[in-house]
């Protein structure tokens, strides 16, 4: 049992790093293109996952399958259209993840239809398949989970533009509990009844689209 869990962690690790890297880079790239050049100086304009890792969020993903990356800090007032551009930047990370998940599932489909060289063993193919599955699911998770309106998730930044001004002080006070709530969702059975069904449904629909699994 212990060996199986270690193997699952190792198979999921490339997907976690890939997902965090593309998520953080997408935010930084969008912000940079829209005029916020400090993302490059902050070291976030890179596909390397290291600058985009939040240590706590990383280990929570690794052991629970639910977690987050380091937020890309952006000053919306630096944009020509602060609200519109900030919303675009906030959405870009998750959209990059869901797009990558779709591409990964498509690549997995290719393993079932393209003849592979005989020197590639079934064990290697199975390992690639499992890593691809983990990676796709983790990318979908980051897309879904980041929509929750709690700091440091993208949903927090998005919600700031839609909450009435007079209610924002209460919303800010509520955010003092955000990390506790996020951890509670991730490490308790709560996510099995809230976040996980959404992730599973999106993943299932992608599999159906590519006609994988019958």
List the helices and strands and how they pair.
Layout (H helix, E strand, L loop, with lengths): L1 H32 L4 H4 L13 H10 L17 H32 L8 H24 L8 H6 L8 H7 L3 H10 L2 H4 L1 H15 L5
Helix pairs in contact: 1-3, 1-4, 1-5, 4-5, 5-10
Task: Assign the structural class, choosing from mainly alpha, mainly beta, alpha/beta, alpha+beta, or little secondary structure.
Answer: mainly alpha
Q: Note the run of SSEs as H and E.
A: HHHHHHHHHH
- What is the total domain count? 1
Instruction: Average the pLDDT over all residues and give the rounded result.
Output: 92
Assess the beta-strand content as a share of residues: under 5%
How many helices? The count is 10
**Cα radius of gyration in angstroms:** 18 Å
Q: Percentage of helical residues?
A: 55-70%
Segments where pLDDT lies below 50 for 5+ residues?
Answer: none
Largest sheet: none
Total DSSP E strands: 0
Using the alpha-carbon principal axes, give the shape. globular
Amino-to-carboxy terminus distance = 29 Å
Task: Please provide a written account of the structure.
It is built from 10 helices and no strands. The chain is mainly alpha-helical and 214 residues long. The chain has one domain. The radius of gyration is 18 Å and the shape is globular. The two termini are 29 Å apart.
